[in-house]
Each structure stands twice: as structure tokens, then as C-alpha cells.
């Protein structure tokens, strides 16, 4: 007799579906699931909060194209993971969450941690189901994994009744399923491709926008050929950075506002016209802009701005279709147009302002100084994880990416607290490579706090992540230690302290040393450079640089307020 438990069926089914990583927190009833996962050859990373575990699992999905699994216990465990599911689903990243739940004979009886988990996950996922028997586990897992990566990628949930984990069934009574293949690739209609090309050729001020859909879709080779073959200027979205290198001559990121405002035709490749792209509307966009929209999700077409041409299908394939069509008569957008002149002029002017701020030399340092020195030392192939308000926004403009899928940040949902989970996932994946790359996690002090205990996870698994906390003593801004002390003398801080403030000069570096990693307290550019170099040289353990900056340091003057939207 060859019997198999529910836990083994879950683990083996995940492995069959090429799910290689599991992040979670165990407890009754899922401990055996994690053990079975390891036995099946899946790497298991035990985390400190389910939210961070789910962020990590979704980052694996984005980086590898195959979902990571997030394993949680019932009730509160699953509820903590909902934040990660919502973030993944909003980012269009695949992740599979496996939740233990109450035993079948205790349902609705007020069982321990009982919660309507399948129903709860519906709003946060594309698919949410509970196998009704042990025999059904492989097909439900196959469908869940397939759903997470087919069509628009997203989160999926599989609920496992507690009593099914250790229950057994004859192996030959379970139908074996093979691995679901990668999603089928679809091309755009050729008439639409021709229309798109004629709109593009007629453009005076064209712009290509490269989104994280292009990164997820592994469209980098096609994209490079297209941009270099057509000579068009391109602008990456935050996580579109690196599909083509930020220092590519056609990259106009440093003239972002001007490029968006004056483009008459935008070729939108795997990016949504949501808040991140100012809805595609005035005052940030030209009211007459024609959008050539490329996406694999038909429902996305026309959101906020009617698509001039809608090209439905896979970005890599469609970009190749466009290039073939555009090159038929040897057309190329000239490099000496007025448009290129305008863009180049703006790029040079903006670079000058950032440089002046970076080289100010005053202490405490400002954001620009910190990022200037970091950018000089970071290797080109490193993975940059970033979150925090100013830290992420300014960091994005100053820390270059050169390789696709090497930037992970707060994303479409603007979620703070994702950084450490993402970094753990990236480091776990890198570790399996012949030539692993560094993972550098650039955090605001507030952002760091959301998942700070994951530092222990990094130390436990010897994941050599470098965390740089850009510490301004608060959310957006903070106060200096002397002012804080004065306030404390004046009365109860809960009545007086600005809600944005956090403990001034908090020793986040000591959080890292507490668990055996390297910690550095940094106040000057020399200390910053030394600490970063020492950390880069150490592949054995994680480091944390606690970089104290001017609590009133801010972004340089912006042309437009944040989150502008005119009435429709
Ligand atoms: P960004 O944050 O960079 O603007 P979004 O997450 O808003 O990017 O948009 C990504 C878009 O890419 C989504 O609309 C998604 O449907 C689409 N997408 C994802 N993968 C592919 C692919 N392989 N081909 C085409 N579109 C894709
Ligand atoms: Mg801060």
C-alpha cells in the first residue's frame, strides 16, 4: 500500500507545477505542509509576519514568472496575508497562498481561528477555492497556479481544511497531473499593427512608455531592438526601469514631466494609465494625445483615455510585430528633431539641479547627497528594492537600473512595508544562481518599521541583503533630537508630537547587530561610502546602514502637485 497525506499532495502538486519557493509562518494546522514542501524539494523560508511572507512569495512570482507560495495558518494568519495578496493582485504579480483552515466537522461551530477564508480571499485574488477531497488537491493546485500566470497575472488562494493535512489516501486513487505550460502567447491583429505604425510614423513628438508589464513579460530583447531600430525616446515607469538600461541614450526619464506633457503619440507598453501615469490626462498629458495601448488584458484598454489603437496580446510579440512593420521601408525617427532637442535640454537642466543638491556638502546630509554616493558604489547588476515616500521617489531618479526586474518597490498599490519581504525573496532566488547578484534594500525609516523583524529572517538564513535606512526621523519628515527632548519636557508627547514623527536617531543598525548581522551608524559621506563598501564585500551576512539625514530634507521643487486628476 502506498499512501500519501494531504500535506504531501499539496507539496508534490506545487513542485509539479514548478513552484520552487514557499514563504510562511507555520502553526497548527500547516506545520506538516511546510515539512512536506521541503521533502519535495521546495525551499521553505520561515518569516515573522504573514504579510511579509506574502510580499516575498509575490516577488518570486514577478522575478521568476512562476508564483511563489505563501503558507499561512487559519484565521489571523490568513488575514495578515491579505495585504500581500492585495498588493500582488494590484501589481498583476502571480502568487499562490495556501491557508490552513478549520477541520471539516467543525465548520460553523465556532472552531479555533474559524473564518470564511475562501470568501474573504475572493476580493484579493483571481481564484479562491477549497479542494473538497484529498483526490482533488492536485487539480485545484494546478488550476490555481495556471490561473495565477495566465491572462493578467495575479493572486490565487487554496484553502486546506485542517483535518485534510494528515489524512491519507491511496496514491493510485489520485489522478496525476503534469505541469501547466507557460501561458500561450498571442499576437495583435495585423490590421491594428499597421494602424499603430502609421500613427507612430505621423507623430511629431512620440514617446514610448515601458511599464512593469514589459518587465514581467520578459520583453527586453524585443524592446531593445524596437527602441534602437526606431530611434524613439522612451520613459520607464518605476518598475519598468531596467527593461532597457537607465543610461540608454534614448531614455528620457530625467525629462519625465516634459515628455509626458508634450508627447502627441504615446506607445504604452505594459503600463496602466492610473495614478502612476497621472491617468493619461491633462494637466500632465497633452489633451489630444493619441495612445497606442499594448496590453494582454482586454478590459484594460481605454481606461481613462480612449485608446487610439488597441493592440491586444503579449508585449514582446507585439513589439516584434511593430518593428517588422515599421522597418519595411527603413523608417526611423530622426535624432535631430526639435523634440529630441527639447528633451535633451530638459535632461541636462534637471541633472544639473540634482547634482548641485548632491554636492551641497552640508551636514546632516540631504537625500540627494546620500543617493549620489550610493549610486557611485552600487554594482550595475544589483537588485534595488526601495520604499518610503521621499526615499523611494528621489531614489528612483538617482539610482539607476541596468537589468530588467531588478527594481522592486511599493508598486501600484503604494504599499509600504514590502521592502524586506521583497529583498528576502530576491536574495533567496539569487543564492541559487552561479553568479548571485547583490540585493540592496533602500528604505525610509518609516517603511523599514512595517516589517523590521524580518531582519531576523535575513540573519537566520544568512541572506546577505544590504539594508540602507535613510533615516529622517519620521514619515515625510521628522524632528531633530533636541526639539524632541524639548517637546517631551513640555508635556505628553501623544498630545504634542507631530503625527509624522518617529523616534529621532533611532538605532535601527542595532536591530541588525542584535541578530548577528553588521550594523553601521552613518552621518557623513565618508562613513556612508566606507560602510557600503564593507557591506558589499561581505557575502556572508546581512548589513544595515542607518543613515541619519537632515529631518527637514525634501524633494526638489516639483512642477506639479502629486496625484493630480482633472474632472473628466
Ligand atoms: P506600471 O506600474 O509599470 O505602470 P502596471 O502594473 O500599471 O505597470 O501595468 C502593467 C500592465 O501590463 C498590466 O495592465 C498587465 O495587464 C500588462 N501585462 C503584464 N504582462 C504582460 C504581457 N506579457 N504582455 C502584455 N501585457 C502585459
Ligand atoms: Mg522617514
Structural account:
- There is one protein chain.
- With 568 residues, the protein is of the alpha/beta class.
- The protein is built from 22 helices and 19 strands.
- The longest helix is centred in the middle third of the chain and has 21 residues.
- The radius of gyration is 25 Å and the shape is globular.
- Adenosine-5'-diphosphate binds next to helix 9.
- This is 2-hydroxyacyl-CoA lyase.
- Belongs to the TPP enzyme family.
- It holds the Pfam family TPP_enzyme_M.
- Its cofactor is thiamine diphosphate.
Largest sheet: 6 strands, parallel
In terms of quaternary structure, the protein is single chain
Unreliably modeled segments: none
Number of strands: 19
Chain-averaged pLDDT: 96
Name the ligand types: adenosine-5'-diphosphate, magnesium ion
Distance between the termini: 68 Å
β content, as a range? 15-25%
The gross shape turns out to be globular
Features of this protein?
2-hydroxyacyl-CoA lyase, 568 residues, 6-stranded parallel beta sheet, metal-binding, EC 4.1.2.63, Thiamin_PyroP_enz_cen_dom, lyase, alpha/beta, binds adenosine-5'-diphosphate
Amino acid at each position: 500500500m502506498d499512501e500519501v497525506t494531504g500535506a504531501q499532495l499539496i507539496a508534490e502538486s506545487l513542485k509539479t507545477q514548478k513552484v520552487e519557493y514557499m514563504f510562511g509562518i507555520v502553526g497548527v494546522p500547516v506545520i506538516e505542509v511546510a515539512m512536506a514542501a521541503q521533502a519535495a524539494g521546495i525551499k521553505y523560508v520561515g518569516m515573522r509576519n504573514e504579510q511579509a511572507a506574502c510580499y516575498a512569495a509575490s516577488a518570486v512570482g514577478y522575478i521568476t514568472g512562476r508564483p511563489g507560495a505563501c503558507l499561512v495558518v487559519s484565521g489571523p494568519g490568513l488575514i495578515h496575508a491579505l495585504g500581500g495578496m492585495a498588493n500582488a493582485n494590484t501589481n498583476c504579480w502571480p502568487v499562490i497562498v495556501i491557508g490552513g483552515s478549520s477541520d471539516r466537522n467543525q465548520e460553523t461551530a465556532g472552531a479555533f481561528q474559524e473564518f470564511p477564508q475562501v470568501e474573504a480571499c475572493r476580493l484579493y485574488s483571481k481564484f479562491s477555492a477549497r479542494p473538497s477531497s484529498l483526490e482533488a488537491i492536485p487539480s485545484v493546485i494546478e488550476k490555481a497556479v495556471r490561473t495565477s500566470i495566465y491572462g493578467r497575472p495575479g493572486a490565487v488562494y487554496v484553502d486546506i481544511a485542517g483535518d485534510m493535512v494528515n489524512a491519507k489516501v491511496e496514491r493510485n486513487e489520485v489522478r496525476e497531473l503534469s505541469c501547466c505550460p507557460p501561458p500561450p502567447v498571442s499576437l495583435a491583429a495585423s490590421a491594428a499593427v499597421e494602424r499603430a505604425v502609421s500613427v507612430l510614423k505621423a507623430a511629431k513628438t512620440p514617446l514610448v512608455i515601458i511599464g512593469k508589464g514589459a518587465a514581467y513579460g520578459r520583453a527586453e530583447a524585443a524592446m531593445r531592438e524596437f527602441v534602437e531600430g526606431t530611434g524613439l525616446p522612451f520613459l520607464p515607469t518605476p518598475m519598468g526601469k531596467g527593461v532597457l538600461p537607465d543610461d540608454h541614450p534614448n531614455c528620457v526619464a530625467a525629462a519625465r514631466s516634459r515628455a509626458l506633457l508634450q508627447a502627441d503619440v504615446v506607445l504604452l507598453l505594459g503600463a496602466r494609465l492610473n495614478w502612476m501615469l497621472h491617468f493619461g490626462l491633462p494637466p500632465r498629458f497633452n489633451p489630444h494625445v493619441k495612445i497606442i495601448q499594448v496590453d494582454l488584458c482586454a478590459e484594460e484598454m481605454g481606461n481613462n483615455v480612449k485608446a487610439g489603437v488597441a493592440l491586444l496580446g503579449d508585449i514582446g510579440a507585439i513589439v516584434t510585430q511593430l518593428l517588422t512593420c515599421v522597418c519595411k521601408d527603413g523608417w526611423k525617427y530622426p535624432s535631430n528633431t526639435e523634440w529630441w532637442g527639447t528633451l535633451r535640454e530638459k535632461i541636462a537642466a534637471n541633472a544639473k539641479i540634482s547634482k548641485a543638491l548632491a554636492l551641497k556638502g552640508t551636514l546632516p546630509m540631504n537625500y540627494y547627497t546620500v543617493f549620489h554616493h550610493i549610486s557611485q558604489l552600487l554594482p550595475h547588476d544589483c537588485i534595488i528594492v526601495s520604499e518610503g515616500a521621499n526615499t523611494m521617489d528621489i531614489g528612483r531618479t538617482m539610482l539607476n537600473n541596468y537589468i530588467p526586474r531588478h527594481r522592486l518597490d511599493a508598486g501600484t498599490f503604494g504599499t509600504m512595508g514590502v521592502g524586506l519581504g521583497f529583498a528576502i525573496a530576491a536574495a533567496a532566488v539569487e543564492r541559487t544562481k552561479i553568479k548571485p547578484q547583490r540585493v540592496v534594500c533602500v528604505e525610509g525609516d518609516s517603511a523599514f518599521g512595517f516589517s523590521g523583524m524580518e531582519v531576523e529572517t535575513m540573519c537566520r538564513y544568512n541572506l546577505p541583503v544590504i539594508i540602507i535606512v535613510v533615516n529622517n526621523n519620521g514619515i515625510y519628515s521628522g524632528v531633530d533630537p533636541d526639539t524632541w527632548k524639548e517637546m517631551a519636557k513640555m508635556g505628553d508627547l501623544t498630545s504634542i508630537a507631530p503625527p509624522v514623527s518617529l523616534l529621532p536617531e533611532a538605532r535601527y543598525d542595532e536591530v541588525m547587530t542584535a541578530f548577528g548581522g553588521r550594523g553601521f551608524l552613518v552621518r557623513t559621506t565618508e562613513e556612508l561610502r566606507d560602510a557600503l563598501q564593507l557591506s558589499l564585500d561581505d557575502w556572508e551576512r546581512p548589513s544595515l546602514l542607518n543613515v541619519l539625514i537632515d529631518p527637514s530634507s525634501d524633494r526638489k521643487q516639483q512642477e506639479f502637485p502629486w496625484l493630480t486628476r482633472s474632472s473628466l
